[in-house]
Amino acid sequence: MTIPSTLKAWSVTELGEPVDALQLVERAVPTPGEGQVLVRVLASAANFPDVLMCRGVYQVKPELPFTPGREVCAEVISTGPGVTRAKVGDRVLGLTTLPHGGFAEYALMDQHAVHSAPASLDDAQAACLFIGYQTGWFGLHRLARIQPGETLLVHAAAGGVGSAAIQLGKAAGAKVIGVVGGAAKAAYAKELGADLVIDRREEDFVALVNEFTDGRGADVIYDPVGGETYQRSTKCIAFEGRIIVVGFAGGEIQSAKLNHALVKNYAILGIHWGLYNTKNPQAVDDCHKELTRLADSGAIVPFVSERFEIDGVPAGLQRLADGKTVGRVVMEHSQSST
């Protein structure tokens, strides 16, 4: 394949909301360095950290200008020195290397973040298999050690992270409760397989969780929201339960009352999955093999609610920022396979 000299990419030139911060530019195609691969982007999934990076409030703050889009399915078209994990022509998924992110025609990836894309998933689905599902698997299995028959409560259950947790919980044999905001999101969470769906705008999730579990509470609570949602979750956590702190999409970082954890004998577990990529990459590889097995068996299928081409990136990312999406929204190039 002939590699062009320039590419189109969405570039953040000044911080702000995605619709304001992103500018479509043409720039030189980067050359892969030591241990890197150059990929042709087939699909790039939008994640909330992409929004936060546009705003400049994420823990990773790339220098301006940069192209967001960390999660991709792509074709390897060139390899740098020392690359052993991928070869030209491979269909892969994983993390891009900023500033050359996935909302572009071409991107860079460090080889440790390159994984084979399951043939059972199309490009847009495969682009969604990494961050959300890896976070869910590590949180539920490696940290919380969820068991068949336990009750899992998932907050923001209609979002990308939450929807992955629902599917992984069901695959683990758990009973799953999904908490969402709004009727449309409730219908989606039910479609994903949640045994009980609670619309937090209309119902008290604490009361309904305790009722569903006969007063015992949820064994595992998966919380990407934080703030008041976390505080109220402590009122429906089971004895020896586990609360997984995934993030703070609600905008408030809560303070945990450790005396309450002591009295009720529950654990508070933090999951920053990105650290495993450098601290224990073998665990990430092993997780990917398990996720591929689950995808090939049909136990997990990333739900892509919106597919758009490169021109639709700012609007799609803004819809995610505004909480108007369910499942995953994905940029997919027209030349990619579906």
Describe this structure in words.
GO terms for molecular function: quinone reductase (NADPH) activity. With 338 residues, this protein is an alpha/beta fold. The protein has helices at residues 18-21, 48-55, 123-127, 131-143, 160-171, 183-192, 205-212, 228-233, 258-264, 276-279, 281-297, 313-321, and strands spanning 6-12, 22-28, 36-45, 71-79, 91-95, 106-110, 114-116, 151-155, 175-180, 196-199, 218-223, 237-245, 267-270, 304-308, 328-332. Helix 9 links the parallel strand 12 and strand 13 (267-270). Helix 4 crosses helix 11 (281-297). It is globular.
Topology:
Layout: E1 6-12, H1 18-21, E2 22-28, E3 36-45, H2 48-55, E4 71-79, E5 91-95, E6 106-110, E7 114-116, H3 123-127, H4 131-143, E8 151-155, H5 160-171, E9 175-180, H6 183-192, E10 196-199, H7 205-212, E11 218-223, H8 228-233, E12 237-245, H9 258-264, E13 267-270, H10 276-279, H11 281-297, E14 304-308, H12 313-321, E15 328-332
Parallel strand pairs: 8-9, 8-11, 9-10, 11-12, 12-13, 14-15
Antiparallel strand pairs: 1-2, 3-4, 3-6, 3-15, 4-5, 5-7
Helix pairs in contact: 4-5, 4-11
Order of helices and strands: EHEEHEEEEHHEHEHEHEHEHEHHEHE
How many helices? The count is 12
What is the fold named in CATH at topology level of the largest domain? Quinone Oxidoreductase, Chain A, domain 1
Q: Approximately how much beta-strand content do the residues carry?
A: 25-35%
Class derived from helix and strand content: alpha/beta
> What is the helix fraction of residues, given as a range?
25-40%
CATH superfamily of the largest domain: Medium-chain alcohol dehydrogenases, catalytic domain
| Measured distance between first and last alpha carbons | 21 Å
Number of domains in the coordinates? 2
